[in-house]
């Protein structure tokens, strides 16, 4: 039988970008750091985020029916840590709106979505998002690998 630690360690060997998923309910913006994100389809344009059952964000996305995926730039490690609950004392994070959905300033990509489907799998819900708008900045990505933040190195 595989243990949880071994599974986590193996999954951590897959280098990913870092995103903050955000939504707005009753005028309040909610965000969480996530690396479980991928594109699903070009036509129609669909993405998926995986949200844990125990995450507060799960109900927020169900209530709003919309979310954004903000792909963080290399200089946004602190933002990632804030939305991962790792920094308690921090400056306020400023959001903009893209197609009515909150997005993070200076992210390398901001993707606004409408929920088109939700699939419960194990202890997570996969939200399929129909992409409604995109804004892109020219910035180096923030990378996460083996439990640590990293940056791309030039050859």
UniProtKB/TrEMBL annotation:
Residues 11-151 form the Flavin reductase like domain. Gene3D superfamilies: Electron Transport, Fmn-binding Protein, Chain A (2.30.110.10). It comes from the Bacteria. The keyword Transit peptide does not apply. GO terms for molecular function: FMN binding; riboflavin reductase (NADPH) activity. Keywords: Oxidoreductase. The keyword Transport does not apply. This is Flavin reductase domain-containing protein FMN-binding protein.
């Amino acid at each position: 039988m595989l243990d949880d630690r071994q599974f986590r360690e193996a999954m951590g060997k897959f280098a990913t970008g870092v995103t903050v998923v955000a939504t707005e309910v009753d005028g309040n913006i909610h965000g969480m750091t996530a690396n479980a994100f991928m594109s699903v389809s070009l036509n129609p344009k669909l993405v998926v985020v995986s949200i844990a059952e125990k995450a507060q964000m799960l109900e927020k996305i169900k209530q709003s029916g919309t979310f954004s995926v903000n792909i963080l730039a290399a200089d946004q490690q602190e933002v990632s840590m804030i939305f991962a609950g790792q920094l308690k004392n921090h400056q306020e994070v400023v959001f903009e709106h893209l197609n009515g959905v909150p997005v993070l300033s200076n992210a390398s990509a901001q993707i606004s979505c409408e929920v088109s489907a939700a699939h419960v799998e194990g202890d997570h819900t996969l939200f399929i998002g129909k992409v409604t708008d995109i804004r892109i900045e020219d910035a180096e990505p923030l990378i996460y690998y083996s439990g640590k933040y990293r940056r791309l190195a030039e050859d």
